Amino acid sequence: MTKALPQRWDMDVIFPGGSESEEFRAFLGTLEGDIANLKARLEQSGAGLHETAAFKEVVTHVQSIAVRVRQAGAFISCLTAQNVKDEPAKLLGGRVKSISAAFGAVLTRWEEKLLAVDGDAWEDLLADEALQPLAFVLNERRRRAQEKLSPEQEVLANDLAVDGYHAWQDLYNAVVGRMTIEVEVNGETKQLSVGQASNLMSSPDRAVRAHVFEKWNEAWGKEAELCAQALNHLGGFRLALYRHRGWDSVLREPLDIGRMQEKTLDAMWQAIDNRKDRLVAYLERKAKLLGVDKLSWYDVGAPVGNVHKEVSYDEAAALIVEHFNRFNPSMAEFAQKAFDEGWIEAEDRPGKRPGGFCTSFPVSKQSRVFMTYAGSASNVSTLAHELGHAYHQQVMWDLPALNQNYAMNVAETASTFAEMILADAAVKNAANDDEKLVLLEDKLQSIVAFFMNIHARFIFEKNFYEKRKEGLVSAADLDRIMEEAQKQAYNGALADYEPHFWASKLHFYITSYPFYNFPYTFGYLFSMSVYARALEEGESFAPKYDALLQDTGRLMVEDLAKKHLGEDMTTVEFWQKAVDLAVADIDEFLRLTEEA
Ligand SMILES: [Zn+2]
User: In the CATH hierarchy, which fold is given to the domain comprising 18-147?
Assistant: First the structure.
């Protein structure tokens, strides 16, 4: 028998001693000193950094600090996730937060210097051999600084935002954290947290789902006034800042973060709208399978079968390596290394943070995956997903630090790609039609989420801002705007909707990222396009795949698709191919459930 794989990660190779690590404390001390030195260096340099040598020296410092700030943040994430009661880790987390803030302020100073270099001198700088590879990110940084207010005003706005903008998100989190939802399950009264209640909404028992949904709506109705305040004020802050900067579209910031054009976004939604009738056909069939005329909001996530297959951790690892290998041998090799060398924290034990993530240590050039593995099919898919993220990072290690930052819309490319490989293999290898149906249904539920649920969030957010420009929006109006958005996005296919969804969905309250919705759908469909290409081209696609991932931090998404897929992302045709591939599963689902 071969030795079982480790299920706890090895953090000691990063910094020995966990939250007591002396080495980590020394690392932070040096980092703090270097940030202070860079700050002083920038203050000394007067009006500009026109000399190529001086400019390059500062760029080198910025990159060296950036990787270490990331390294420190990743270490804290891992410590606090593996043991939520690690108090010293929390204290260290506070110190790392201050370090990040200090570095952020230095970066604003640096941007001021970039602005001070005039056009011709700027071109000369970028022509330098060492700076050329950074041209995209340097130009972007300079342009973004140009489009904002003066550095003094931006610094002031940032400082005020801590208690005047981001605080609304904190308030919202506090409201959700203290909420309980009282439900009766099996004759027993229970006080559930929001997360627990949400899990019960996918119960196989319709009466349970209906009951929990009713109580859920009641609970959010009670908090609607507070949530409406939070949403109105954080939205108002955003609009006021945009107005001062002279920005007229609310999509400008999220599109710029995602390095994409509005045309691209419009084309994507159009391609989805073109196939909404297919999704409606699926929802209608599902209603029939559940024995109802029309699905309720709370039926969409209901399971259609109950095939439970447990997969041991070692089996999951073997499965992942085997299927990765069919697409890209270096992905398989990488995953094997991650399993063997303790890059994954998978153990099912109390005291861990819920959920899963992947984080990276740029100084060590290693990643770590966090999750709690309990043997379900969705655990296998999470494991593949997070390893996809880790692989993405792996192919980027040799790039300059400034070229390693990619936005949320492309961040999910490699992870979704990895998930698709596993999901398709599972459907193909299903033992019988019942098992196949459950697996297909799982995929279709995510398609409904990406094409309908997230579409509704996008429509809502756009309409909310239009209304907010005219003044405060009441909770009742928010309900109405939400329900209209849901009806539109679901093509009226459901019997009822969730009007309080604007309150119950945390994503509307994330201040650092407006429109925290369409990047999900974008990422899924872009990944689908890449996957389709991989299926077409077979193993010869592997090096092209790696090259595409390497460019995710230094190209506009339209250029990324043009360069690596030879496709025009601003057209509906590009997106239609991906959408059609996704909805192809619906045909199979309808065929398997024909006699229902
Ligand atoms: Zn992910």
Answer: Butyryl-CoA Dehydrogenase, subunit A; domain 3 (1.20.140)
